């Protein structure tokens, strides 16, 4: 499956817990990597000279009770969003916080570890669509 | 601590505050409030600007002499003044403001566990500021996208102005990308600023996920009468949304009516171009969109009720290649924006902004812009990062743009070239003989069999014609 090409980066205060969950619950086609902070996420630069197929990139931000400010601030300061990146926010967020996360570009939100199972097929299909 | 109501009257004074002011705490609260002089109440009111930020901190000074002018409370008149740092917080839309004085700590000195509410007040305040910045940035991008004097830009501006003046379902016929997202958010912020917003990517949703993601919006609408509120659902890539999710959406629209407002983003390339009649390539997009109403869901990929909603106020964002005359205006505006939001150490006034050279402008106008507005924005930011000096030339543009050349032949001239490429005959002599014979026959026919006349018409001697006829 093309999902093997997908980059899956896990970062945020609760990285360890969600990284283990993604490794166990998601197919072996996904190879999660941990990043110590959002600042380590590679800067996206479109390579217009390259004819290489696009690599889908999934960023799973594992937050905690400290709120969503770290992620929203980072998303706000980034250059415009790229279609080959999918942001997933993991944590127990209020409705208002979910709305803010969506506004800043987060498209999937998981609150329990087992929610990862429910969205795996969505991420896989997205990955296939982007890489094709 | 004290409370000021919507009209600016002091309606509550805490016992500690009354004591600090030197007022008797033995009388009941309403009496204590009444004894406070107008000058003191004035000092206890926040600045009017609090309605923008929701909170305010500044120093207040209460003159004892003025405060006791009513002759109640402390009897010792003096010029002594009470000075303290006061903090006010306005309580939502109620009009009430709480004020307090005391010893304040820096945010960083307060343990997170001491903050009030879910996420904490500090987080909420930071988020509000961030959202306000985000909204401003969306508005700037949307303004640039709408700039220009082409017919397409004027139509787009008119549609957007109409769409922002009322709350209605909106169909944005444009690919889902960074700039179209910002335009959609701008449309929501302007037309229904206080309404809750849920953003979903249609391509990622099945019916189950859609139900989970839209739950807050649906719950707020589903309340009984007076508690019922409106909500907006912004759906990116509506054309890629699976049928079961579209069915769910159609059901909600039917049940909740206009309480649930939809803003849909549909890529015209996949919805219109692939399915409309090929014989009418010059039809305006609006006409093509109108045609979609008569097509079954199997063709358009979009459920009929949703398509009808999207057509209620359709906004078609023209592609850059269809509004080339606007490119210089857009490029300059994007350059200014990139210059403005540059690194703080690089930030300078508009007069320091490099100008766009004519060669660069020509290259920008010729380039076909496959990734449209976002690519132009990226190109301007990239050129700004690369330029040395005060002029951006062709060489500072990304390679793909500066190396783009328009082909030597236009599209209409390509057909003859194709024929020449396929040219092949069996024998040149045979072909020449055939052509010669054809010309001689035509001349003979025109001269009604008179060989001398036919030779004249062919520009040869009669003898040569006779030889050819004999051969």
Provide structural commentary:
Chain B: Residues 146-385 form the Sigma-54 factor interaction domain. Chain B: GO terms for molecular function: ATP binding; sequence-specific DNA binding. The complex is a heterodimer of chains A (132) and B (471). Chain A has 132 residues and is an alpha/beta fold. Chain A contains 4 helices and 5 strands; from the N terminus they run βαββαβαβα. The mean pLDDT of chain A is 85. Chain B is of the alpha/beta class and 471 residues long. Chain B folds into 4 domains: 2-105, Beta-Lactamase; 128-318, Rossmann fold (3-Layer(aba) Sandwich); 322-402, Helicase, Ruva Protein, domain 3, CATH 1.10.8; 439-470. Chain B contains 23 helices and 12 strands. In chain B, the strands form 3 sheets. A 5-stranded antiparallel β-sheet of chain B has the order 2-1-5-4-3. The relative contact order of chain B is 0.06. The model of chain B is unreliable at 69-77, 274-282 and 409-417 (pLDDT under 50). The A-B interface holds A 46, 48-49, 65-69, 72-73, 76, 79-81, 83, 94-95, 97-100, 102-104, 107-109, 118-119, 122, 126, 129 and B 112, 118-120, 123, 126-127, 130-131, 133-134, 137, 176-179, 181, 185, 196-201, 203-204, 206, 208-209, 213, 216, 371, 374, 377-378, 381, 398-400.
Give the largest interface pair and sizes: A-B, 32 and 39 residues
CATH superfamily of the largest domain in chain B: P-loop containing nucleotide triphosphate hydrolases
Give the CATH architecture of the largest domain in chain B.
3-Layer(aba) Sandwich
What's the CATH class of the largest domain in chain B, please? Answer: Alpha Beta
Q: Estimate nothing, just give the exact number of structural domains of chain A.
A: 1
In short:
The complex is a heterodimer of chains A (132) and B (471). Chain A is an alpha/beta fold.
Overview features:
heterodimer; A: 132 residues; alpha/beta; Rossmann fold; 5-stranded parallel β-sheet; B: 471 residues; Beta-Lactamase; Helicase, Ruva Protein, domain 3; 4 domains; 23 helices; 47% helix; elongated
